[in-house]
Design goal:
Layout lengths: L3 E4 L4 E4 L7 E6 L10 H19 L3 E8 L4 H9 L4 H18 L7 E4 L4 H13 L3 E4 L2 E4 L37 E5 L8 E3 L2 E5 L1 H13 L3 E7 L3 H16 L4 E7 L2 E3 L2 E2 L10 H6 L4 H10 L6 E3 L1 H23 L8 H19 L4 H21 L7 H15 L12 H16 L3 H13 L2 E6 L2 E6 L3
Parallel strand pairs: 3-4, 3-11, 4-5, 11-12, 13-15
Antiparallel strand pairs: 1-2, 6-7, 7-8, 8-10, 9-10, 13-14, 16-17
Helix pairs in contact: 2-3, 4-5, 5-6, 8-9, 9-12, 10-11, 10-12, 13-14
The chain binds one RNA strand of 75 nucleotides through helix 1, helix 6, helix 9, helix 11 and helix 14.
RNA sequence: GGCGCGGUAGCCAAGUGGUAAGGCAAAGGUCUGCAAAACCUUUAUUCGUCGGUUCGAUCCCGACCCGCGCCUCCA
């Protein structure tokens, strides 16, 4: 079956292919760099990474833009409090974000673009919106007039056509004609940084950066726009209103949204003490691979309960796959090929692919891999696994890891591989000579360095203990 | 109140109108000089509750209960 995604816009699963060139033009909402990103943010970014990787496996090229929101109320507040410039303040968290992404093996998008690098583009877009009567000004700020856009509400499936009974009024400190209108340009308040522009002094509202940067780099209609589910309203709804008013074209063909992450069954919040950054979790001794696996293993449209038990379980699951890979690479098998096993390998590959094609059903895809691992291990035990079956098995693992990216352990330290090999050889010789004392001494010595020896039928092999 | 998501074994979780994938944990076993590691086996007559449709429902329909999200900044 072809690749298909659930589209928030149509509320249906639809077959996906890019509109032109076999290149997927994709825009995803990035971080607001006012602090370190938390594990909930990374749930969404991990989803985006899986999406990137799986699109590529489907043979598509990628042109993916992600924004860095480096100007907003919180950033201004914090920067002013610390007597830093905006750029000075946001540089720290932008860099931290990139580093955290690298730690989680999240690929960097083709373009990672900062809002503040596009002020002129935004001003120009706002002027065009004004020229077509989609805006009004009030006290130095410019607002988007929602009543000027008939399709408003089509993404979040809210009906705004009637009166706005029950709607909150005047939630902003700025003056708006209608509660649902939103700021395109904000006049500066006392002591706030601002840009001097044709619109007057001020700074851009939140939503306009995404419309402007997406259209600038990817064109009037995106193939995919993705982000967290909480962005559907108002952020993405507002992006549509701005973009479609500007271009007259549909802004994005597919809208994909990742569900929320909970921590230990509760909403993550600072007051509950369950608010974790990536750094917090790494400090507790968990590996980036385990975190990545846990975030990836629950399909993106289902809320994910992040627990430390789950993290341990993820680590053990990865170990199982790594052990299987090690066994494949080190054991020796009789010549020839088992047709039955070859068929199972092919079936596992197919199952894995079909599952991910089905709106990135990662849980089901993992099922296909683990089922195969059990069957192959059994065949190895029974002696029916043949040398000719190893290559296809390794290919399945490679396919798996091209998406999940957890098999390769993080760079290790300590004794070099060659050094370990030498000690292992010495122990084998000692065992042969029945010098068990020396053999055990070496085993303990290596164990102290986190190296685990496995005595198997076809000889000894070793691995580094994973954190 | 409006819109949306979910309730499947101790935990995480897939799934289909025809009788429950997978992972972790637990218990048993294999291997071994002893160990460790690894591997294998077993583990839900049952899928929130109550009705309905059907030869048959966890999967379809209705009602209800519970949890979560958005509606205001938010991944």
């Amino acid at each position: 079956m072809a690749l298909r995604f659930y589209n928030t816009l149509s509320q249906q699963v639809e077959t996906f292919s890019p509109a032109r060139d076999n290149i997927v033009r994709m825009y995803t909402c990035g971080p607001t760099v006012y602090d370190y990103a938390h594990i909930g943010n990374f749930r969404t970014f991990t989803f985006v990474d899986l999406l990137r990787r799986w699109l590529r496996t489907n043979g598509f090229g990628l042109d993916h833009v992600m924004n860095i929101t480096d100007v907003d109320d919180k950033i201004i507040r914090n920067a002013v409090a610390q007597r830093k410039s905006l750029a000075e303040y946001t540089a720290v968290y932008t860099e931290a974000f990139r580093k955290d992404c690298a730690t989680l093996r999240l690929e960097e998008p083709e373009r990672l673009v900062p809002a503040t690098g596009h002020i002129d583009d935004m001003v120009e877009a706002i002027e065009r919106l004004s020229a077509s009567h989609h805006t009004y000004s009030s006290e130095g700020s410019v607002y988007y007039r929602i009543s000027s856009f008939p399709g408003y509400g089509k993404l979040s499936h809210n009906d705004f056509s009637g009166n706005l009974a029950g709607a909150r009024v005047d939630v902003d400190e700025y003056e708006k004609a209608d509660a649902r209108d939103f700021a395109l340009w904000k006049a500066p308040k006392e002591g706030e940084p601002f840009w001097e522009t044709a619109l007057g002094p001020g700074r851009p509202g939140w939503h306009i950066e995404c419309s402007v940067m997406a259209i600038k780099y990817l064109g009037e209609t995106l193939d995919i726009h993705a982000g967290g589910i909480d962005l559907i309203f108002p952020h993405h709804e507002n992006e549509i209103a701005q973009s479609e008013a500007l271009t007259g074209q549909p802004f994005a063909r597919f809208w994909l949204h990742a569900e929320f992450l909970m921590v230990e069954g509760q909403k993550m919040s600072k007051s509950l003490g369950n608010y974790f950054t990536l750094r917090d979790i790494l400090e507790r001794g968990h590996s980036p691979e385990a975190i990545r696996y846990l975030l990836a293993s629950v399909p993106y449209r289902k809320s994910l309960n992040f627990t430390f038990d789950g993290l341990k379980s993820a680590k053990t699951a990865i170990d199982r796959l790594r052990n299987f890979k090690l066994r494949l690479e080190t054991d020796r098998y009789p010549e020839g090929q088992s047709e039955e096993l070859a068929a199972r390998t092919a079936q596992a590959c197919k199952g894995f692919t079909e599952s991910l094609n089905d709106d990135l059903n990662t849980a089901e895809a993992l099922g296909a891999v683990f089922e195969y691992v059990r069957d192959a291990n059994s065949a190895m035990d029974a002696g029916t696994f043949r040398a000719g079956n190893a290559a296809a098995a390794l290919e399945l693992l490679a396919l798996f890891d091209s998406v999940f990216a957890v098999l390769q352990p993080a760079a290790s330290q300590g004794t070099s591989d060659a050094g370990v090999d030498a000690l292992v050889a010495e122990r084998t010789a000692a065992k042969k000579a029945k010098n068990f004392a020396r053999a055990d001494e070496i085993r303990d010595q290596l164990l102290a360095q986190g190296i685990i020896l496995e005595d198997t039928k076809s000889g000894v092999r070793w691995k580094r203990k994973s954190p």
